[in-house]
Amino acid sequence: MIAAVLLVFVLLLFLYESFRVALAMLATPLLALPAVFIGLWLTGTELNITAIMGMTMIVGIVGEVAIFFFSEMRELETDDEGKGLTHAQRLALAGRNRMRPIAMTTFAAILALLPLALGLGQGSAMQQPLAIAIAAGLIAQLPLTLIVLPALLQLLCGRSNPPSIRP
């Protein structure tokens, strides 16, 4: 788990070359992890190796969605639609542009995991903690990516111009 978090952080540092941006984007997957514990607790499922695998996957999935959100905001800097907008306005516009794709992929993944999380079918009990962990993390991902991430980016990077992505 720690290795996954560190690797995501190193990837974000290499990708954006900004400690502030990497820190803001890493906070999103880290804030999704308590949702996994809550989901396991609500369902009465024990924390085991498959649930920990699900937590590791949540770090990657939520980190990837955060990258897509931030890339959309960066595209607005060069796009005609986003020129002349402030940092906060670009964050709001990026959220509006990415809300439907993020919501659709989140709901589709949760619905796909639902039979496994409910333990339907032969042999599903073994993978049930994995499905519960991923579904709980994905439920938390939606508000974290669309509300918390823009707030963190505005807080950490709003006053100064974050570094632009080099081609």
Largest sheet: none
Low-confidence stretches: none
| Binned strand content | under 5%
Helix count from the secondary structure assignment: 5
Q: Helix amount, in percent?
A: over 70%
In the residues, how many domains can be counted? 1
Average pLDDT confidence is 88
Measured between the Cα atoms of the first and last residue, the distance is 31 Å
Q: What structural class do helix, strand and pairing data support?
A: mainly alpha
Task: Give, in order, the helices and strands.
Answer: HHHHH
Which value, in Å, is the CA radius of gyration?
17 Å
| Beta strands, count | 0
Instruction: Give the CA-based shape.
Output: elongated
What's the quick description here?
This protein has 167 residues and is mainly α. The chain has helices at residues 2-16, 19-43, 49-78, 87-117, 128-157.
